[in-house]
Amino acid sequence: MFNRFKERLKGFKEAVSSKIQEKGEAQAEKAEAKAQAEERRAPPKREEVAVEDRVDDGPAPENNAAKPKWSFASRAKSLIFEQEVVLDEKDLKDPLWELEMALLESDVALPVAETIVASVKGELVGKKKKIRADTGEIVEEALRSALLQVLSENRFDVDEFIAKAEKPVKIVFVGVNGTGKTTSIAKVARYLKDRGYSIVLAAGDTFRAGAVEQIEVHANKLEVKLVKHRDGKDPAAVIFDAVEYAKAHHRDIVLADTAGRLHTNVNLMDQMKKIVRVVDPDLLIFVDEAIAGNDAVERARLFNEAVPIDGTILTKTDADAKGGAAISISSITGKPVLFLGIGQDYPDLVKFEPEWLLERLLGS
Ligand SMILES: Nc1nc2c(ncn2[C@@H]2O[C@H](COP(=O)(O)OP(=O)(O)O)[C@@H](O)[C@H]2O)c(=O)[nH]1
Ligand SMILES: [Mg+2]
User: Fold this and answer.
1) What sequence ranges are listed for the domain SRP54-type proteins GTP-binding (predicted)?
2) Worst-scoring range by mean pLDDT, 40-54, 93-107, 114-128?
3) Do both 282 and 190 map to the same domain?
4) Which of 292, 312, 313, 326 is the most exposed place for a label (fewest CB within 10 A)?
5) What is the pLDDT of residues 236-288, one digit of tens each?
6) Using CA atoms, how far apart are residues 207 and 244, in angstroms rounded to an integer?
7) Are 212 and 277 members of one domain?
8) Confidence band (pLDDT; 50, 70, 90) for 73?
9) Is the residue at 162 inside a domain?
10) Which atom of ligand 1 is nearest to 343's Cα?
């Protein structure tokens, strides 16, 4: 997961480390030159001559058996690594450019990349660092806090929302074809069933041949009710009926499938608006795949403009090397990510938690 992202971030981390090293060495050289100049001015007494300066010609005389003292020069040398380096804006210019490129190449949306870079910069400028200490640590910490900030925007607890909402809770899933809507509905059905809720599925994809059969297979496997129309072509009517069924039978949650559609298809976008008008969903969830990167984020933005959406599910995160969509989608839409799909089976769904994602983005 996110292998390319991690790979690309390495360049930035190395750039900061070598800057600290470089600056530290320059500082140390100066200190050493100064110490040597002082030593020339006032040479140390006989017993203060450093070990390395003595010629080893046989056993040391009795009076030298005690620990020899270091010369000024070598003492300065040993202090190099204890010296603190302070990073300023100029030092960070190149590394931060490297970071911005890494983020953009990982499909992080431009405004989000800029926010992250600014926040990392704020964390690092003026930071003191001992050059011998692990330089990777401060960089890691700065990245962690910048990403966490972005991922924590629009926080939303879907469990709490569903627990408190009036029943039946109506949840409609929309998005383009093949991104994992139907699979996600089945996963969410399983997730909610495991938490004690009763579920009704609505076969609202009346457009694609085989779509009703596909969701029917899931309904049977999960042992939940499916509402479908034999020959109906109106998804709004199917979903409306599913809601009526849930009300009549005191079911907790309706999960409605819909046909895949592109935001450019005016008829299908109008159909989606009609569904929203007729059904008035409690949650309109946009589903897209993490591997689509920038495209997924752009589609989310356009769907949100058209309807608007309440949140997203990002699927196929398990197959995503870049991470950009997962980092950007909430920030760009202003809507929370509710779940991440991490595989093809029912349990391969995780409730979105910034910390969980952060571990996978930065962890090994
Ligand atoms: N690896 C992986 N595959 C997924 C995930 N979610 C869905 N898929 C696969 O994506 C394909 C399309 O899924 P489907 O639910 O039919 O998409 P829909 O057209 O949006 O309803 C199927 O082969 C799913 O198994 C996921 O989180 N990870
Ligand atoms: Mg489908």
Assistant:
1) 336-349
2) 40-54
3) yes
4) 292
5) 999 999 999 999 999 999 999 999 999 889 999 999 999 999 999 999 999 99
6) 22
7) yes
8) low
9) yes
10) 28
Dihedral over alpha carbons 291, 300, 278, 206 (to 10 degrees): -30
* Residue where the block lists tokens 């890494």: 102
CATH no. for residue 202? 3.40.50.300
Distance between CA 42 and CA 244 in Å, rounded? 97
Q: For all residues of the chain together, what is the average pLDDT?
A: 89
Same domain, 272 and 310: yes
Domain count, the chain: 2
Residue 152 CB: number of other CB atoms within 10 A? Answer: 13
> pLDDT at position 239, please?
98
The ligand with the least distance to the CA atom of 213 is: 2
Domain range for residue 18?
A: 1-36+82-153
Convert the pLDDT of each residue in 142-178 to its tens digit. 999 999 999 999 999 999 999 999 999 999 999 999 9
Distance 341 CA to ligand 1 centre (A): 9
The amino acid at 104: L
Domain identity same for 197 and 337: yes
Q: Is residue 98 part of a domain?
A: yes
Q: Which amino acid is at 106?
A: S
Pocket of ligand 1 (CB under 6 A): 177-183, 260, 315-316, 318-319, 341-344, 348
Residue 47 lies in a domain: no
How far apart, in whole angstroms, are the C-alpha atoms of residue 115 and residue 165?
34
**Which residues have CB less than 5 Å away from ligand 2 (the ion)?**
181-182
